[in-house]
Amino acid sequence: MTLTLDKQVALYEEIAELKKQRKAIMLAHYYQDGAIQEIAEITGDSLKLAREAAKVTDPVIVFCGVHFMAETAKILNPKKTVLLPDLTAGCSLADSCPAPALKKFQDELRAQGIRFQTVTYINSTAAVKALSDWIVTSSNAREIIDRVPKDCQILFTPDQHLGRFLMEETKRPFILWKGSCMVHEVFSVVDMIRLKKQNPQSVTIAHPECPQNMLQVSDFVGGTEAMLKFVGGKPNPTTFNVATEVNMIWQFEKRFPQHTFVPVPGIACACNACPHMAKNTLENIRNCLRDMTPEIGWAPEFNQAEAVIRRSLL
Ligand code: SF4
Fold it and tell me: Which of 72, 120, 181 to mutate to test the pocket of ligand 1 (most atoms within 8 A of CB)?
């Protein structure tokens, strides 16, 4: 976000005033620019934001994240206005599992007599959630998988890397959907090893959406909330090499100024920022509060998705 300080302060003031007028609350994912996280009432990973969205009492929610997250907030707050500053803020991982393709595959498995339950990562569309038995995040996946009957196989969608990681952790057979996140897939394992060699005392932490070769050379693997807990448990100043979306560094530095955080670079670029999250800006947050649009509307599949989300996450 390249704004002059004066412009940023002016936008902060406009947004604060509009929030008051509209009785709005702002939720922001950890992968949003730090300037956005700074003025959000609630920041978190997908699970925390879904749980917090369920408790909101304000009539308007401005969701600073991507489309599937705002959909979840709407599903849990059908009577509230849920605004997404840019309606085109999508997700490559959610896009990698279209609902009709999943339905076809499920029908094929059933036709073969395979007993299975569908366990879906929260980074998916409401239509895919509606076809699922369970929704998981990287924080609660172990606990949910334990609830799948032992005589059922697990069809895990859409993230193959998280699925493979969980398959190894739980020692249960998974059928993996071959989706992936464009950000976590392109970290450079070579650069990660180089960082570790340059500073052998450093600790490498990686998100389970990263490919297996990255996870194998990491000291800790976990979602963003788990990373925060892990880092928070280290009392002495430590250097962490971080393999997740780069804006997470802002949250780490704010909470743990005694530590040093080094982003692991990507193969093609040095930053690993999510281009979908980057579509939300202070300007379009101001605009959506001013104009009360774009808004997430209710879709027919939300009814079924709601039942699955409530059973799994709340
Ligand atoms: S970081 Fe990956 S999974 Fe998260 S919103 Fe961006 S593309 Fe989707």
Answer: 181
